[in-house]
Specification:
Rossmann fold, alpha/beta, binds S-adenosyl-L-homocysteine, 29% helix, 6 helices, seven-stranded mixed sheet, 213 residues
Length: 213
């Protein structure tokens, strides 16, 4: 199969799993998942709809889930977005094509430096990546229009809710590790927070503190 055919099939699979937003599909067409998957055994699986292992015992999410989460976030061109859980950097790269500014944090330094190198290579100047415990958000850059959490929290973290603008949206998987978790969309309105359950998902847990490796 040629690269172009593989891409076509990739986009077709995304559509058939409910990713229908044209801007999201466009961004996912432009960003090559293969750039974020380590060379070697998994490189040829980059365009299959499955999560894949990355460094530090973490995973790059399944493309259809990346698409559905991005779609649920409804990112606008002027938005300032925070992603918690940089991982490979794939999700942040997609967000960078849709938003004005993206901040992404991970608790693993090695993942952060790897993602930073890829963002530079791909010339995505509006993404900034930090090593940080993202459950505290990024107080210096807050408030945010959109917050995407790509690790499962037991509850939506309070500091993140507090860093959401009015009209802002947060998408976060909620639930215990090793069980089915629920993807939640939270919108901050003038009068409070609106919660909507989207679907069952499975993510690595949101852990406390910076990792030592
Ligand atoms: N969005 C990623 C996949 C994320 S996997 C991608 O596109 O590839 C989840 C990531 O969340 C892991 O890399 C893990 O290190 C990170 N993580 C877990 N708890 C965290 C925390 N408290 N703060 C920041 N990152 C965290």
């Amino acid at each position: 199969m040629t690269e172009a055919e593989r891409k076509m099939q990739f986009l077709f699979a995304l559509r058939s799993r409910g990713v229908t937003d044209g801007r999201v599909l466009g961004a996912m067409e432009q960003i090559n998942r293969a750039d974020f998957v380590q060379d070697g055994v998994f490189a040829d699986k980059a365009y299959e709809d499955m999560p894949l292992p990355i460094a530090c015992g973490q995973t790059i999410s399944q493309p259809s889930i990346v698409g559905l989460m991005t779609q649920a976030l409804n990112v606008q061109p002027r938005d300032k977005v925070l992603e918690v859980g940089t991982g490979s950097g794939y999700q942040a790269a997609i967000l960078s094509l849709l938003a004005r500014r993206v901040y992404t944090v991970d608790r693993h330094k090695a993942l952060v430096s790897n993602a930073r190198r890829i963002f530079e290579q791909l010339e995505l100047p509006n993404v900034t990546v930090f090593t940080a415990d993202g459950s505290h958000g990024l107080p210096d850059q807050a408030p945010f229009d959109r917050i995407l959490v790509t690790a499962a929290a037991e509850d939506p973290p309070g500091p993140l809710l507090a860093q959401l603008k009015i009209g802002g949206i947060m998408v976060v998987p909620v639930g215990q590790e090793e069980t089915v978790q629920t993807l939640i969309r939270v919108e901050r309105t003038e009068s409070g927070l609106d919660y909507k359950e989207l679907r069952d998902v499975r993510f690595v847990p949101l852990l406390e503190g910076i990792s030592r490796d």
